[in-house]
Amino acid sequence: MSKLKIIIASILLYLVFMVALFPARFAVKLAPLPNHVQLNQVSGSLWQGKVGQLVVGRYHIDQLAWEMHPWQLFTGEAALSFTVGKSRSSLRGHGDIGYGLSGLRISQLKVIGDISYWAPSTMLPLRSKATGQVEVFIANYQQGQPYCESMQGQVEALTLDVNNQFGEFPLGDIRLDLSCDNGKLLATASEDANQLGAQGQFSLDEGGVYQLSASIRKVDSQPEQLQKALSFLGKPDAKGRYPLEFSGKIPGF
Question: Which InterPro entries does the annotation name (predicted)?
């Protein structure tokens, strides 16, 4: 290796470590943050640091810690591993995130939170109140157009219970499988992954255009109030399934 190449490699290595070891609290002061974002109790370095509390709008995230992988920079990707929350936090989880020439990459991400964190009562219709937990697991995700190149994951609601003026609805556990199809985000429900007799697929396409194509049938495991409400969906088909067909565009998406 020529002396010039050794000098260039040494300078690049020095710069990588300088950036990695730069104090995180100074970086926060230098970085322009949006008005709705706050970082409190910042410590450590860009390489390995912690934030006591991250506030994004109404969402509060406690104990965010990260560890960068500087050597990934030589492959053209900035990558880090993170953890968030404590055992009793409203939101807790961990995962690996990278960003490079191919866009955002996520792997082995798992986030668990109370359903009141994701959807507080003020966001629910009919003065509903919901209890339970929501788990999001992304085994792998690669950014693409319009939303994804590939994705494999799950969203699961555990011991979901909804109460409103029409009664109590113990909905139990519900799992949705996440995937990608030609850039569209897909969430698929199979009947064996819930106790509601529901199956179908939700898709999100470019510009926030969505489509729900699903159906539900009467099963013994359904809450009694839900069984009574099925008649409002119209007439069932030959297999006893009531159609659930909706499409539109998410406002402001």
Answer: T2SS_protein-GspN (IPR022792)
